[in-house]
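Re: the pair you flagged

First of the two:
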Amino acid sequence: MPKAANWLEQMRSVVGPKGFTTANEDMAPWLTDWRGRYTGAAVAMVSPANTEETAAIVKIASENAVAIVPQGGNSGMVGGATPDISGQSVLLSLRRMNRIRAIEADGQLVVCEAGVVLQNLHEALAAEGQRFPLTLGGKGSATVGGLVSTNAGGTQVLRHGTMRSLVAGIEAVLPDGSIYAGLTALKKDNRGYDLKQLLVGGEGTLGIVTAATLKTVPALVDRCVAWAAVGSTDAAYQLFRFLNARIPQSLEGFEIIPETCLDSVLRHIPGTRSPLAGTHAWHVLVEIIRDQPDAQDPGSVTEHLLADAMEQGLIEDATLAASEQQAEDFWKIRESIAEAERASGPALQHDISVPVPGMARFIDEASPVLEEKFPGIKIAAFGHMGDGNVHFHVKAPEGVQAQEWMRDAAKQITPLVHDLVIAAGGSISAEHGIGQNKRAELERLSSGARLSMLRAIKLAIDPKNIMNPGKLVPLASGQ
């Protein structure tokens, strides 16, 4: 590493004492990832207050070949915002950059900085009669910059798409310290490569997203949330097809949940209760919305559709939320599954996707393959049936030593899960990114063409490899 005193002092002078620290006690909370799987070290943590300060910091880092690890809410799932253990990198926090610069209700756009927390964005837009149609369990800590950089998904992808579909413009600092000013939202822009889409999902390896122009939609007039029981994964898929064919513009959520996950939530999450009496193999959580006053009442629509579905034998039982609080209670069950599964014992969690028509088949066929090969494990598969995203949890056998099993099992079980995903035409990362957790698997399972393009883009834009090194892109040996 270059002599530290000079460039560190330069960075300190850029951001001032509020935005600079080398104290271990100040940095410690941000050096371990949310899951507690990765812990790194940093020579300093720098927190710029605006884009110009960010650019100045990156320029200093570039001139001195110092690695930078950008970080938002530190709520990622793949170790993408955690520095390595060398202690030679700078952790760059974007949490001070938390202004909503403009809400353009007429144009259905919002311009906000990278450090804006998702829940705060939701609340600010609601006051203007708008909403940002992406939500997830960690909305209280996840930031806009992190959502953009990981191409986040969530429960509304079915209707609105991932962040790639919701980002209309980006402002970012590139590895040489220059500023890419691309916040203007243009319906047509045919100047070659779509540069903003290189940064969406780039995990900070090509530049630091400092602000984004996001698409908004009208605030909800009302919604209907329903809970239905089905006899199989295929029945769940057939119910999805049935609903999506009839109300594609108002079907906003369709989640599939096994009885085992529901039981885990009821046992471990206080204040939860089963929406239906009895036990059922599979459950479906459905949300149907109205965002235009002259549209049909979603409660009546949902009631009639589910009655028709029951007559056709697609569902075994169903109930509609009788109030907004009950609707939130239904969603709490879905959003608490990961927490409940952690409380019930160690598990390997896989965020994967397969083609939507093959999701039911994948769950049915992959689960017994794993359970037969590794006796004692149990599969808990749930997720967004409308977009093919499976959260595929492999639960440890009873009585194992958690850390030892997680370490050893990951080496055998995760590659097999990923092999099955690729064989089904899917992806080993649906909505959480690659980070450092999946980089080796990305290299193992990617074609030569994909790898060469990833490496070429990375090396062309960041030839010094200072932007979040060791994440996402599996560089060739010696690079």
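Second of the two:
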Amino acid sequence: MHLIIQGIDIENHDLRSLAKLSGADQIQRITGQAFRLLNVEQNKDIAPYCANASLDYAFVDGTKQLSNFGLIAMDMDSTLLAIETIDEIADMHNIKPQVASITLSTMRGEIGFAESLKRRTALLEGLHQDALQKVYDERVRLNPGAEKMLKCVKTAGLKTMVISGGFTFFTDRIKTKLGLNYSAANTIEISDNRITGKVTGKIIDAGGKAEALRHMRDELGLKREQIIAIGDGANDLKMMAEAGISIAYHAKPIVQEKATYRINHVGLDGVVNLFG
């Protein structure tokens, strides 16, 4: 068992203290923000120490290599992207508070996703479809470390997939921009160049995300243990449960409780640092 320590600013004395707590026999530098402590034992004092020092930690199987996996699936909004796309559309048209409050309740697991999506999309009724392109052009930005993570997983031979409860308008463009292999999302209805306020087809909610991941896993002939899934909200939990490794990225408490690993202080490139 190895202990991976990651943080924006890792002090030498913290590494020494963590090595002592875990019984590590060696400290390896992965990057300036990531270190691997070898041959450790799990210790209940590690978690509070890292929380106090603003460090991410993960006990990992030292034999696990990134190339052992076949597919990495990511949520889009607030995971792969640093924004909530629906909120940004709303912000451009002065209805963000109403939409954002529904989004937050959904992420906390207080209301069902399908109902939430219907309510938020209804608030967009009448907007010109150019509003979607304007958000993509002016607001969409990746979370830190996203491109580095994707480069590493592709080099290791993994397929890549974005699974979103948002709109295909954005996932299609993100898929092309980043060279992702697969995508799944909801389709917003457009009529006479204007948003109708409706979603067409079956809504991809928490269950839909899980179904999309299972479908791709089966199509690729992979086992559950060969899947990595990354998310941040309650709507991602069922999808993450379909993966051998689930990672909560700057996530809500309920997601952090359920995930295999948690990343709260570093970027998405922290995902690849977990594996040899």
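The chain has twelve helices and eleven strands.

-B.
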